[in-house]
Amino acid sequence: MPAAERDAEEQIVVFQVGKDVYGVSICHVQEIIATQSISRIPLAPERIKGVIDLRGKVIPVVDLRQCLGLSPGDSSKSTRIIVVRVKENTVGIVVDNASEVLRIPAEVVEPPSRVLTRNQTEYFGGIAKISGRLIGLLDLEKVLGPSISDNHATSASKGLVGAPT
Amino acid sequence: MELDPDISPEELEVFLEEAEEQLQLLEDCAVRLEKTPESAERVQEIFRAVHTIKGSSATIGHKDMARLAHATESMLDLIRKKTLTASPQIIDVFMESLDALRTLKDDLAAGTESGADLSSLISKLEAVSAPKEGPSEDGNEKMQEAFSLNEAERTRLQAAELKGHSPYLVEIIFTQDSPLVAARSLQVLINLAELGEIIRSSPSSSDIEAEKASFYMVILLVTEESIERITKVVVRIPGVASVKVNPWLDEEESVSTVGDAKMDERGADKGQGGPERRVIDLGPEARGRSTEEMLDMAAKKMATTSNTVRIDVRRLDNLMNLAGELVIGRTRLLQVGGKLDSNDRKAGAVGELAETSRHIERVVDELQEEIMKSRLLPVEHVFNKLPRMVRDLARKAGKEIAFYIEGQDTELDRSVIEEIGDPLIHILRNAVDHGIESPEERVERGKPATGAIRLSARNADNQIVVEVADDGKGINAEKMKRVAVQKGIISEEAARTLSDKEAVDLMFAPGLSTADTITDTSGRGVGLDIVKAHISRLNGAIHVESSRGVGTRFILKLPLTVAVIKALLVGLGEDIFALPLISVTEVLRVEADQVHWLLDRPSILLRGSTLPLVGLDEALDLPTFCPRNGNRRLIVVIRLGERRVGLMVDFLIGEQEVVIKSLGGYIGEINGLSGTTILGDGRVALIVDTEALLRRAMALQGEDSLLVKA
Prior knowledge:
heterodimer; A: 44% strand
């Protein structure tokens, strides 16, 4: 986002996972889809719930709570998948609902250290206090894990196998 | 070294590709020229290739390369005209310049400067050639480097020539202190334009307007005026220090204008939107021939010139991707059609839908096949550099080897072609160093002193089989076992139970080398473990057959296409897995009482031999599900080389062609899985890596795994 706008306000997509309320910058959000059957990947890292077929592309789907180091919550209500794009990776995040896009002015955002404990702060870019709610603004690169930036190093499965994702 | 600043990265890319092609061709011809130095055809080929390099390097402004190519071309021209014979010394000089050209090209590609000493090489080339021609012609030739005409320019030139005009090269030098060089240059262009047509100028008028004028200018002018007139016109312009006008010799005179003229005369096809006109370049041999001869040559050339188009490999990859998507889509379409059909036979629309989807299915199948074929290249591409390598290796090792190649036209997907080069080199090195015995040894054994190595490629139902066979001393199974035990790759007991065939497979274990001396060509170990890893990455397989004292045969099986494989879909609980059909031998259903248990491991008797059983979930390390079929077990027998394992699954879905999709960078590599695929109903199935599975299975058995992980 251009510097001028950054200071003014951010547009974020707000969603809920269990009782927690989070937000991600809209520039990362590709789309929000209804949940579909997730095919499991055995032996994949814990936080990866599996993969889905998104119009012919195979997209990994993560469990946000696992990414944040929390115990897996009650997933029965999960009705949406937010598809985000971070550094050449397209990943889906399973959430309970995602209906709002809010404009967050810079003034209402506090640094995470004020509200959270030491080891949780790295996942957040800030905490927004708006209309009486606390929204945790996620830093997706940190949340999704080290393999996000390291994408080119890890050769996806067997070398030159077929179609790129 | 600076290039023309106008060169775009794409143009540079194209240049590098073309130069590479020409250089490879030259290297190939060079070897053959050594054997038959009198072959006029060979010389002609070489001449043309060097000529092309000269032209294109001049176009991008690589002066060094152009100069070198030019000098080489001059020498070749003399050979071509039989003024000079291709003696061994001459050929040596030619080889030198080839190496230098390659160095220059590689430097350009890598952005480095290896500082080759070109001037001494060029002097050598010039010294070897006939005495220098007159100064003006020499200068003319130098200038011709700068002008390699493109199609449009050549057409204009020919059109003007048809009118009876002649081309001249006008060289102008402005006085050093001439202040308005740009203006002077433009003046030259304007004045000359009045005399005729300017095909090209360096700097061009756009260059001049962009303030890129220089004190030196060259113009290709087609005019009916005389040299004196042209000179007079230029000299009149203030600021001109000197001017030289010479007739321009276009070495690539095309014959098409003559041919076309003939066609027009006949008038048969005029006004009927006749056949497309093609410009056929007959090259320098066409000079001096009669029109009839030229037409003959043109016809012959048309017959042999293939209609090809250069295409970026990435475009092909994209097409491949799209084709894959279509395959998935059509499977879904079929499924939907199937669902409707069974429910509502009455509606006519349903019947139409079924017919339409069948039609689309046929078209998609064909499209997919065509795209797949467009990615195919003949193996010749890889094979052609091997004879030279084998010859060099044989000489170094002091062995006499006859190298035969068969099936060069066999086609492979281009990505596979790129990857099998290295494995083949490894295998051939092995054959030369360790396979074929020294001439003395061979004679002792009653074999001909010259050993034979045969490389062949052939099609075999949806696979390409490449074989490297030698008549050397074969693989010593006992020795293999011994060394393997020594190096701790297998245990003593395991070694005892190994059959000879299995012992030979030990070759593929890393760190194994039975060479008494490690030669510099083979390096440490045998490297076959890498070869094997390479081949399995391509979804192929490699086996070796050997007979002591008789010879060895490496058999490589490669898939025709990398993106789609035939797989057997099986289900385990809620998950679906795809097993590459290439590894599946059979599917069985057994009853609980047929299963034997030993040391907590199940197995069955299959036609007399024991088949160990492993649950698919077990092999993949999944939480085990209760089998749906109660007492019955569904076994899929997979085989890799000599080893077989029975995978226990819950249900079978069937055989299907699946499009391989990678797991993606985010998930990364997962041991046991080689990719994913999207099924007709949108579910994602996991493609199993059968080799990893087999290894896992054997580890569970507690066996020393012979297929050691690289």
